[in-house]
Structure formats: C-alpha cells, structure tokens
Amino acid sequence: MLHLRKLVYRTLEISAGKRRGMSLVFNLLLITIITLNAIAIVLHTVEEYNEQFARLFIDFELFSVIFFTIEYLLRLWVCVENDKYSHWFWGRLRYMFSTSAIIDFLAIFPFYFSLFATDLAIVRILRLFRIFRLFRISRYSHAFRLIQNVVAEKKEELILSTMLVVFMLIIVSSVMYYVEHPAQPDKFSSIPATMWWGVTAMTTVGYGDIHPITPLGKMLGGITAIVGIGLFALPTGILVSGFNEHIRDRKKPSRNVCPHCGREI
Amino acid sequence: MLHLRKLVYRTLEISAGKRRGMSLVFNLLLITIITLNAIAIVLHTVEEYNEQFARLFIDFELFSVIFFTIEYLLRLWVCVENDKYSHWFWGRLRYMFSTSAIIDFLAIFPFYFSLFATDLAIVRILRLFRIFRLFRISRYSHAFRLIQNVVAEKKEELILSTMLVVFMLIIVSSVMYYVEHPAQPDKFSSIPATMWWGVTAMTTVGYGDIHPITPLGKMLGGITAIVGIGLFALPTGILVSGFNEHIRDRKKPSRNVCPHCGREI
Amino acid sequence: MLHLRKLVYRTLEISAGKRRGMSLVFNLLLITIITLNAIAIVLHTVEEYNEQFARLFIDFELFSVIFFTIEYLLRLWVCVENDKYSHWFWGRLRYMFSTSAIIDFLAIFPFYFSLFATDLAIVRILRLFRIFRLFRISRYSHAFRLIQNVVAEKKEELILSTMLVVFMLIIVSSVMYYVEHPAQPDKFSSIPATMWWGVTAMTTVGYGDIHPITPLGKMLGGITAIVGIGLFALPTGILVSGFNEHIRDRKKPSRNVCPHCGREI
Amino acid sequence: MLHLRKLVYRTLEISAGKRRGMSLVFNLLLITIITLNAIAIVLHTVEEYNEQFARLFIDFELFSVIFFTIEYLLRLWVCVENDKYSHWFWGRLRYMFSTSAIIDFLAIFPFYFSLFATDLAIVRILRLFRIFRLFRISRYSHAFRLIQNVVAEKKEELILSTMLVVFMLIIVSSVMYYVEHPAQPDKFSSIPATMWWGVTAMTTVGYGDIHPITPLGKMLGGITAIVGIGLFALPTGILVSGFNEHIRDRKKPSRNVCPHCGREI
Predict the structure, then answer these.
(1) Contacts of A163 in chain C (CB under 8 A)
(2) Which Gene Ontology molecular-function terms are recorded (chains A, B, C, D) (predicted)?
(3) What CATH number matches the domain at B153-251, 1.10.287.70, 3.40.50.12280, 3.40.50.300, 3.40.50.970?
(4) Which pTM was predicted?
C-alpha cells in the first residue's frame, strides 16, 4: 500500500527519477485534458456549436469532472509523501490550503455545487468558475511562473506606479467631469462615468463611445493622452527591466567576477 | 504652552522619536479622511447616491472642513518649531507660502468662499477645487515625491521633447487642415479644430470622431501616426530612464568604487 | 557548356568576383521587376486603374511569369555549381526544397495552376499567392534577414510571451463574456466573439465597434487595457533588446578585451 | 561701409562677443515675430476670429513679409563676413542655397508669388507654405537640432525599419483585402484602401471607420495589431537609444579613461 502510494506520487508529480516515463505520460494527458477543457469552455458559448455538439459538451464535462475528482483525491492521498505535508492529518489539511490544491478544488467544486443549486443565476456564475481549470496549466508553464516571479520582485514599484495611475485617473476625471458635464450631461454623467473615458484616454484605447466635445475638454483630453503615455512608461519600464533581468539570469547560470573590480565578467 | 506646541508639532509631523505612536495615529487618521473625501467627491456626482445620501455628504463635507481648518491653524501655530520658519511672524508668513501650506489652504478656502458667493457658476468651479484635498495625500506618497524628483531632474529634456511634440502638432495639423478642409469643412473647420485630430492621431488614441477621408489625408494621417510613435518614444525613454535611475538609487544606498578604474562596483 | 553554367551561376548569385558587373545588373533588374509586381498587385485592385490599364496589367503579368519561369529553370540548372547541391539529381532535388526555391516556385505556380482551374473561387485565392513574389525581395533585404535572426535567437522568449498573451486573452474574454453577454447579447454573443474585443482592448487599438457598457464590464475593460500595456511590454522589450544587440554587433566587427577584467573595450 | 556690414553681421548672428546685447535683442524680436506668425496662421483659420480681426491679420502679414524681406536682404549682404561665403558673388550664391537661406526664402516667396497669381487654388496652396516660417525657429531650437542629429546618425537603422513596416503593411493589407473584400466591398474596396486600415491597425490608432467583420478577418486583424506592436518596437528602441546617447553626451562634456582598460570613468 505504501509502495503504491509512492508510485502514484511519483506519477502525479513531474519527477526526474526512474518512473519518469509514466509521470511524463500522465502529465501530458493532464495538459491535453485541460487544453480541451479551455477549448470546450470557449466553443460552447457559440450558439451553433452548442446546439450541434450539445451531447459531446455534456459528456466531456462529466468526464473531465470525474477525471479531475479522482486526480484531486489521489493527490490528497499521496501528498504525505512530500516532506512538507508528512503528517497524516495536519499535513493533508495544510496541503488542501496550498495555492495549487485550491486551484484544483475550484476546478471541480462548481460542478458539484450546481447539482444542488436551483437558482439559475448562481449556476451561470458557477460556469464562469470553470475557467479556473485553465489556471491549472500554469503549473507547467514557465511563462506563468516567470510573470509570478517578476511581479513578486517588482511588487513595490508596481504598487507605486499603479497608485500614480489611479491618483492621476481620479484627478483627470474629476476635472473633465466639471468641464464636459454641462455640454454632455448624458455621457459625462458623473465622475465614475467619466473615469471610463479617463482610462480609455490614458491607455490610448479610445473606443470613441465617449470623448470631449468642448474646446477646453479637448485640450484637457489631449494633455491627458500625452501624460498617459508618459505615465504608462513607468510600469512598462519596470516590467521590461524585470523580464530582461530574469531572461538574462536564466541564460547565464554560472558567473565569474573580475579579481580587480569585482564586476561580473 | 511652549511644551504643548512642541508636542503638537511632533504629532502633526511624521517623527521618528519618542511620540512616534501618536504621530502615526494622527497621520493615519488624516490619510483616511483625505481618502474618504476623494471617494465622497467622486460619488456625490452620481445622481442616485447624491439623492440617497444627501445628508451624509453635507455632514461629511462640514466635518472635513472643520477638521482641516483646525489642522491648518495648528500647523500655522507650531510651524515655528521648524528651524526654517523660526521667526514668530516672518517665519509663519513664509510657511504660509510654502507648497504644502498652499495645498492645505486650497483644500479649505473654497468652502468659506462659497458661503459668501451668490453666483452659482463660481460655486460650481469652487467645488472642483476640493480635489486639491487629494493632493494633500501626496505628502505621504512615495510615488508623488518620486515623480516630482524625476520631473525636476529631467526638466530640460522633457521641455525639449514637449516643444518637439507641439512643433510637430502645429505643422501636421496645419498641413492636414489644408488637405482635409475642402472635403470635410464641418470637421476640419480650422487649424485649432484639426489639432484635436492631430493629438488623438499622434498619441494613437483615435476616438474616431474625426479622421481624414481623402486619399492624400489618409496618407498624411498614416505618416503622422508612424511619426507620432517615434516622437513619443522620446519622453517615454526619458521618463523610463529617470524612474529606473531613482529606483536603482533607492535600492543601493551605499556604493564602492573600483580602485583601478574608479567605476562603481 | 560547363563554362556557360558557371557564368550563369555567377550572374544569378550576388558574387564579389570578376563578373560582378553582370551579376549586379541582373539582380537590380530582378528587384525592379519584383517591385513593379508589388505595385501592380496593389494597383490592379483599384477599380478605375484596372479598367483603364487592363491590357497593361495582363501583359505585365504574362511577362513576369515568363521571366520568373526562365529564371527558376536556370537556377535549377546551375544550382549544382554550389557545393551544397553538387549531385546532378539529388542536389537539384534538395535545392528545390530549399526555402528560397520554394518561394520562387510559389511565385510562378499559381499562374500555371489557374490556367487549368475552372472554379473561380480557387482562381481568386491563387491571385493572393502572387504576393509571394514580394517575399523574393527579402533575399536582398538586410531588414528581412535581421528580423529572421532576431526572431530565431529570441524564439524561446517570444513563444513564452505569446503564450502569456493568449492565456490572458482567454481568461479576460471568458470573464467579459459572462459580464457583458446579458447586457449586449448581440455583440458579446460568444467567447470567441468577445476575444475580438479582448485583442483590440489589450493592443489598445479600440475600434469602437464592440466595448463594454455595464459598470462592471467597464471596470474589467479598464483593467484589461492597463494589464495589456504591461503584457505587451514583454515582447516589445525582448524585440528591442534583440534588435539593439544585432545593430551593435554589425557596427563593431572586431573587439578587444581588457587584460585585467576580460570585459570588452 | 565695411564696418557697418560687420556690425549688422554680428547683430543678425548669435554672437558671444562685444555686441552681444544688440544681437540678443534682435534674435528675441525675431523669435517673437515668428511665434506670433505661427499663432496668426493657426487662428486665422477660425472663422469668427478671421472675421473679427481681418484687418489685423492682413496688416500683420504685410508687416511680417516686409520685416523678413529686409532681414533676408541684409543677411545676403553681410554673409560674406562668414569665411565660408567670403567671395562677393560665388559666396553669396552658395549662401542662397544653404538650408537656412532656403527656409528664409520660402518664408517670404509665397507672398510675392501670390500677388501675381490669379488662380485661387494656387494661392490656397501658397498659404500653406507660410508654415515654413515656423521652421525658421528651428535655428534656435536645441530640440530641432537634436532630432536632426539623431535621425542623421541612426539613418541606416531607421530606413531599415521603415522598409520593414512598409513591407509588412503591403503583405497584411493584401491578405486582408482578399479576406474582407467579399464581406465589405465598399470599405475594403482595393488594396490601397485596405492599407489605410493596415496603418491604423499597426499603429494601434484604430479610428473605427474601417475594421474587419468576418471571423477570419478579425483573427488576421488581431494578429496584425500584435505584430504591429512588435514591429514599432524597433524604431522606438532605435530612437530612444539615439536620444539617450545624445542627452548623455551633452551632460558630460569632458571624459576620462581608465588607464587599465580604456573604458570611460
């Protein structure tokens, strides 16, 4: 039994040891099922596909939930093999509250909850939760881990620049509201409504559904767009430098230092 | 009395000494009130909230003004504790014209002025001035001080690149006016009106309310957008390098220099 | 005969040796014909030019195909002069499947195929293939080779960041679909339809044909635009550094190294 | 007479010597008149200002032309003081074809030409030429000289990346034309018409007057916007590095070099 648990653990986790082949096959199968789930979630919202392949969508959904449930229970059973969760009860409880286990749980929970929910609105919202299955793939994705690391490292600077953007957005939208409200009371109806203009102007999206028409408003709108470009240069610069640092680090695992000045060679 | 003045001074300013606890509590309270003011300013423009919580908005406005007025008077009283403003009269006068004191004054002045103003248009404009309360938070914000430093340091380059943008905007809008005016006399009605197109094209916002329709105008519009991207690369590059320098500086407080080449290690 | 083959080979390829003059003349002629082909492909879609110069377009097309066919056959004949394709049969076969030979083939093949095709839809699609002629110029273009090298070198990072963008696009569009579908069932009709909004929001194009109207949707739309700017900072940063490295390399062909720290001087 | 010529020369040019005061006054006057001209050119296109101040605009135009004409003739007279144009006839002729003298000439020539022109269309176009007066200010502007230097230095890379953009624009627009033409024959009427879409999509302006509606067209449009961001990263990166190099150079006029490795200290 304990031997079997070890075997299952090695299969579920990506291991580099003896049972590497089985682990690789299982994890490729898992990625395939998750990807198919993402495609199914996207395509089942297209009316014609939904009608044509209704049976297929339901069957695949059922199969996915059963597969993910068995996998979740197996992971819970074998997690004690990991030194971090070695206690038979407290270890398993702590594992259940780890980020990856929560994501795994959120991928299956909505299905079981919707069986008992009678309110259609709740069922609709629960469907949205199925997108969490896509997050499961992030465990395998270098990209996702990279972005996590960069964001974690540059957290302080990013919060700082986000605060600047929000600060700027409030100021610009408040001024614009007082300038444009008399001319377009239906569009610039309140400061929160004007903030929608503010965010599309500062990010230079500019859908065109709301824009100033008075000369003063246009002047302010022009300055906002120019300032917005400068303001977004900040997080862009932070992220670019963060990503570059990481990419450089990954490429040069070992480093030498000049004996004279201590700089890297 | 002098002892009390010292105590109040230490509470108002963010101090690192003995009375640190009281100073922290007061400043957190101040930040909370300022943030609530920002939320109130934004939300009171939403019709339904304004009707529902009319009483609350007025009461909170009154409370804020009284709080800020007392705080302003206290600051004026204790500012002489600061060596920069030590003279009992001239010191206080000079303090009144410091940037932070002016912002504090602009946060309360509109309320008192509006009590005597009978013209509704002026009262409306004065309401706009309440946003200055939000600027008060900038005293605590690293972000705001950072942007101030970067802008101050790179002032010359930013003026230079702003001049370039304005120069380019006038040239492009003038040429576009002569090209598009005959085809769209109502939209490209004058060079100032065309400059609204120019600024949305160069910043790539592109609301879609005004755009060239003649082949020559479209060609010019395409070139403008391409040149605009290049032109805005300048202030973006300046600000990115400015922010990066500051962030780097803040992280490495002390520096050593290589004895061979004098470069930083 | 063998002497002639050598002569033709040296004329077709850009050689630096004796017959440089003839080779230069031929290659300039080839670039001119390709450029004229590009102009013809673009202009023949303009109704009035197509009617006015119908004869000219057909004649030039015929001339181009004959010229490219003769050139293709000549290249096939002389390719054995190249050491890589020296075998009289297998060398020529391998040459036919080289990238440049395939591009040459695709530039003439549609014409011959359309002579036998009776289905008009296929003939239309084949016309599109004529744009491949433009790719032929890439052989002479430093720009094209530069972009190929940069993309090849930074392949891993670019795939990684493209995955991130796609991942983000699916998540954002799925959430937006559930938020906006009830309010605008005709525009946000399905997740794939919402992805068109997602891509225009994240790239800040913002045509304005589809955008959120509910408060929650607008908030999500604003966050998407802000995140999109950060997300696109990644490939931009990768490409900028890639291009800069190449441009720098091309300018400094030889390098010296400091004997003390081994850094480039 | 010769003494007077020297005096006039020193006044017209920005000199650092004895007559510095007079030169400064004259050049400030010149900048003021040029700036007023720019404002007049912009404002006279606003219908209501043009009617109200018609007399003023005409008088100022007359004054400006007389002032610039006298200045042009004086410059022509005194240019022989400059060693470069010392010959009394050939020197003056060569001066007339220098960039700055041509700009000066283009600033006054349209007025004299329009006196004899009877065709109104030509007079309209000549009015456009008055914007050249604004270019005269570039002589004083560091910004203008900076951009000239950067563009001159990075010429090769900029041509290369512009070629890439044009190349990409033709390919993308050709494919989009064949994809969208059947669905929107009036908007995507020809490849040149589709190139207007292409340029607004690649620069992310997105006016919304023209955009794909078919699923395949939308997919292609999304890819175009993503590729466009990458493509414009190239000239942006080139210009940013070019400007940064210049700004850095201007700040460090003198440099020392480490005796060990020859790097700048």
Answers:
(1) none
(2) voltage-gated potassium channel activity
(3) 1.10.287.70
(4) 0.82
